[in-house]
Amino acid sequence: MDERVLLVEDDPSLRESVTLVLERAGMHVVAEGDGPRALRRFEGERFDLVVLDLMLPGMSGFDVCRELRRHSRIPIVILTARSATADLVAGLELGADDYITKPLDGAELVARARAVLRRTSPDADDRAVAVADLEVDPLSFRAYKSGAELDLTTTEFRLLFELIRHAGQVLTREALLRRVWNYDYLGESRLVDMAVKRLRDKIEDDPRQPKRLVTIRGVGYRYERQ
After folding, report:
1. What gap in Å lies between CA 99 and CA 112, rounded to an integer?
2. Architecture of the structural domain at 4-118
3. What percent of the chain has pLDDT over 70?
4. 76 CB-near residues (< 8 Å, 6+ apart)
5. For residues 84-109, average pLDDT
């Protein structure tokens, strides 16, 4: 499969090196140096993944991420400085699916890009599941609450599906990282926490007092059978 990646990075040398790394991994890369040009590209072409630097001149990467999420559930991997924790959290809250810190490691970037792309492919053996008024169908990549379709990103969808098909069971953050993010290593718990926060905003009547998706302190999360 010829995955198409939209790379948005203003640093010419970094833009070139990331392009080379991803293309050597078999991906087709379209690179832009600023937000407006990238959004125009996105509107006119098909892409499977966006790799987005947060610190862009003019229109920031945060604004680009927000605009993409208004119209699309395409997977987004953000690039951020290792020390910029606040920027990272803000990017994840806006709907980014994953992140990688600078200076970039080429092998890690490819691994994360491939993991994100795998999450967009449903498993033919997965069947639709429902708990109370919420239904998730992995083959159509659609979820419904009281008959109304939910607007979920790919990661949010897979997280909800994993939780709801194990309703009543506690899933650790480590288990969710393996099953949703395809990660076999630890240390990325904020990916889970930020995705849960976004998911609660979409499925809970009151996200500040969740009744469906509850936290089991020190362990992980459980979707209540209700």
Report:
1. 8
2. 3-Layer(aba) Sandwich (3.40)
3. 93
4. 49, 50, 52, 65, 68, 69, 95, 96, 97, 98
5. 87
